[in-house]
Amino acid sequence: MATPLTRADGPQSVPALLHRNAVKFADAPAYREKEYGIWQSWTWSQTRDEVEALALGLLEMGINEGDFVAIIGRNRPYLYWAMMAAEMAGAVPVPLYQDANAEEMAYVMNHCGARFAIVGDQEQVDKILEVQDQLPEFQQMIYLDPRGLRKYDHTALTQYSAVQDMGRANRDKNIKELEARQAKLNYDSTGVMLYTSGTTGKPKGVVLSNRNIIETAKSSSEFDDLRQTDDILAYLPMAWVGDFIFSVGQALWTGFCTNCPESADTMHVDLREIGPTYYFAPPRVFETQLTNVMIRMEDASRMKKWLFDTFMALARRVGPAILDGKNVSQWDRFKYKLGEAFVYGPLKNTLGFSRVRVGYTAGEAIGPEIFDFYRSLGINLKQLYGQTEATVFITAQPDGEVRSDTVGVTCPGVELRIAENGEVFYRSPGVFVEYYKNPESTADTKDAEGWVATGDAGFIEEGSGHLRIIDRAKDVGQMADGSLFAPKYVENKLKFFPNILEAVVFGNGKEQCTAFINIDLTAVGNWAERNNIGYASYQELAQHPQVLEQVQSHVEEVNASVAQDAMLSGCQIHRFVVLHKELDADDGELTRTRKVRRRIIEEKYADIIAALYDGSPQVSTETEVTYEDGRKGSIKATLSVRDAKVVPVTASKLAAE
Predict the structure, then answer these.
(1) Which of 64, 345, 475, 503 is the most buried (most CB within 10 A)?
(2) HEC string for 453-500
(3) Closest CA to 70 of 18, 165, 121, 138
(4) What gap in Å lies between CA 45 and CA 18, rounded to an integer?
């Protein structure tokens, strides 16, 4: 068995970590996957054997050192193994978003010059075949699930298991070469290349070394006392740096088990069955779960709803303090224990959070109300701040110092500084090597001393050392009167309401703020059903007078809250529109990680924005949309433009604050 290069103080590469675990945790579970309703499990020893067989098969197929291997599909152990096998063979894994369309895949694969692709199923095979003529360097595709592919041309198409069989059959022939390639891997070798979400332009290839991966995994695991006995659920996109670090980096460093759900449809059931002890989700997931809870409570009996409302009021008041070990009266602790028996415990079990010891949210800011809801249940949910270029971790919240308005203190080994314009800079062992084939952007982002510009505006609190992020630096601006404009702050408050799925606030350089709002079809559709309100489409429901009234009440409630903040009181929403369609990544309005592409939205919906500011009571518009099969179409709509009540903020009040 090959033994990869290891330093005196630990392994120097991802394959070296895998080899260490195969020896140290040989019979412990490494990966699980639910298939046909049954959980399959692989130990660390079995995982190493599976990865080596695939790597040997890739050698037999002619993979070269330095080749790029595109990896596309849902979270499956086999695809995580493919990333490890690619590096073991001296190549570079490049995971892509599985829901990306063919053109998006073509851009990434062409940019990196991928010769190989390892994909999950027929859908991904079809997308690559559709753009194959745009990929001059592409040669071989390996597929995992054979369903639907029997009659395809297999000249350059090989089943995953056949590649492994090929590797095992030719082991004696290729093992020396594989060992030699592994021996060359060190801290400075490339471990993975991940593409940015591309909020303002084409995605950039972020090159991360083994040093970035291992040092970050080590320090972050120690920060939160992650253990070999922990369990995580791997369900987030494999192309996202967060999933890579949690499901590969930290999993390899600590030796904990990575569990893959059967499908997106069974994710919540599988989450409950696994009961992860370490859990991560972006704000959108927590928002959706909270919406589902609120919908269920609307349908609950009067007694159950009374119990929920009563104990949740108590939880909001004392839950976070109990979680942080602060002083709480014995009477409140007793009532909270009753709440645990009747409400919090069953609710955590329903959500799949009964065993969560460490939970994180990141990717974008989470609304304080949503964050506090989960912590009030006794779930140790914390915030971290990071980015692909940092190998995730820049700041994180230590236990006992968790607040909704900060993103914590610097992670071990990280340095922070704030520029004169308020932009946050950092440097750390996790700082990326470069943007692939893009020295100009690399130089713009990372200086000669290793300081990286985050593009976010924020400040470090005196005394606590906690970092507070205001917004993306490019999105923070000024209203016409000079007051601060920070749209994300208001958008997150709006998304706390179950009826609101997405919000986009405008106002930079303007006298007033306005907003686009997407309703949550699940929540509003449930309300419509309970109230016997019929509708034929999202568009019809979004423009229903009662829905507009509900959204207006939410906007005005947010305005009242925003008015309490002296610095941001000018960001109250004066007029808004409920859009006739959901903002969609396929239409270019969101990134694949569900971040709003503001500039594209401003250009695409310029006519609606104009109506928000010219006083029009309604606006007629036509919008191009992309259907699931890739066809283009358009939808026409006449939208109501609503005026919202704002809270006057006097100069004397601001001065007092």
Answers:
(1) 503
(2) EEEEEEEECCCCCCEEEEEECCCCEECCCCCEECHHHHHHHHCCCCCE
(3) 138
(4) 9
Domain boundaries, the chain: 43-185, 477-656
- Residue 560's pLDDT is 94
What is the CATH code for 477-656?
Answer: 3.30.300.30
C-alpha to C-alpha distance for 555 and 641, rounded to whole angstroms: 13
CB 214 within 8 A of CB 10: yes
Flag whether pLDDT at 654 surpasses 70: no
The DSSP code for 63 is -
- End-to-end Cα spacing for the chain: 68
Question: Average pLDDT for residues 498-508, to the nearest whole number?
Answer: 92
pLDDT of 362-376, one tens digit each? 877 787 788 999 999
Judged by DSSP in three states, 35 sits in strand
Lowest mean pLDDT, pick from 299-313, 347-361, 583-597? 583-597
Tokens 């014995």 correspond to: 330
Residue 163 has pLDDT above 90, yes or no: yes
94-103, 261-270, 309-318, 628-637: range with lowest mean pLDDT? 628-637
pTM here is 0.83
Reduced to 3 states (helix: H, G, I; strand: E, B; else coil), residue 383 is: strand
Q: What is the CATH architecture of 43-185? A: 3-Layer(aba) Sandwich (3.40)
Task: Name the token pair of 273.
Answer: 């069955």
Strand bridging mode 500-506 / 157-159: unpaired
200-209, 464-473, 504-513: which is most confident: 504-513
Residues pairing with 358 in the sheet: 278
> In one letter, which amino acid is 617?
P
CB 141 within 8 A of CB 156: yes
Q: What is the DSSP letter of 366?
A: P
Between the alpha carbon of residue 369 and those of residues 373, 492, 528, 627, the distances in Å are 6, 9, 25, 35
Return the C-alpha torsion angle 398, 404, 405, 407, nearest 10. 40
| 3-state DSSP assignment of residue 632 | strand
The DSSP code for 401 is -
**How many other CB atoms sit within 10 Å of the CB of residue 149?**
15
SS3 587: helix
Count of C-beta atoms within a 10 Å radius of residue 120: 21
Does 404 have pLDDT greater than 90? Answer: no
Cα(205)–Cα(436) distance, integer angstroms: 5
Residue with tokens 């992020």: 469
Residue 347 tokens, joined: 């609710």
**Can you tell me which residue has the tokens 């209203």?**
479
Strand partners, 31: 42, 258
Residue whose structure tokens are 């927590």 = 286
The yes-or-no verdict on residue 278 having pLDDT over 80 is yes
Instruction: Give the pLDDT band of residue 166 (cuts 50, 70, 90).
Output: very high
CA distances from 360 to 168, 395, 401, 429 (A): 40, 12, 14, 21
457 token code pair: 């505006």
* Helix count and strand count (H, E) for the chain: 24, 30
What are the C-alpha distances in Å from 146 to residues 8, 122, 592? 44, 7, 26
